Amino acid sequence: MKIYDIEGFPNPLRVRIALAEKGAMDKVEFIPIDVMGGEHRSNAFTAKNPDATVPLLELDDGTCIAQCNAITEYIDGVFDGPSLTGTTPKERACIAMMNLRAENGLMNAVGAYFHHATPGLGADLETWQCAEWGNKQKEVANTTMAYFNSVLENNEFLAGDSFSIADITAFAGLVFADFAKVDIPESLSNLQAWRAKVAVRPSIVG
After folding, report:
1. Using one digit for the tens of pLDDT, what is the confidence trace for 138-188?
2. What is the rounded CA–CA span in Å between residue 88 and residue 182?
């Protein structure tokens, strides 16, 4: 299988961490996409992924799977190792819920702030911006951080006692937040401690 991405970007990071957690980094071929040069908007790429986003998973039979949640669910199901998406209906539902909260409230919110309320990736790629929307989404990101801090007061990880895709999404979201200069308030000690613990996992240290 092939993964089209750009190393270091937040959503590709989610997929790479999931692969590493499953011990499957050597099972895929990574194909770099020149996002800064607009390759993700080329006819050749959008024929595979009309969303014009990375990462993109292409299977050996030619099937193309876009969207991080779909890609990581496939990775979790096809490779051996501890489940990242849960093994019981309750676990799967709780992990999916927290993953969506991390994606919408942190990853996407920080992304909206970065792309709309800052220079983002530059004028050539940021063809439409709404600073008011971006700044509002920064508030959403800050609220989500505070919520996660409260969750982590009683939980080891975001969806319970086991590391899951929700933790991966939140961790990548905080990496993006660093880049966008959206700081974690020092008062959120539980979130700070969780981040430090996750940061030393072998799947992240490399």
Report:
1. 999 999 999 999 999 999 999 999 999 999 999 999 999 999 999 999 999
2. 35
What is the enclosing helix (H) or strand (E) of 31?
Answer: strand 29-32
- Separation in Å, CA 115 to CA 8, 11, 20, 76, 106: 17, 15, 29, 30, 14
Report the sign of the C-alpha dihedral through residues 52, 174, 107, 23, in that order: positive
Helix (H, G, I), strand (E, B) or coil at 5: strand
Q: How far apart are CA 119 and CA 35, in angstroms?
A: 16
CA atoms of 108 and 99, how far apart (whole Å): 12
Q: What domains can be seen in the chain, in order of their start residue?
A: 2-78 (3.40.30.10), 89-205 (1.20.1050.10)
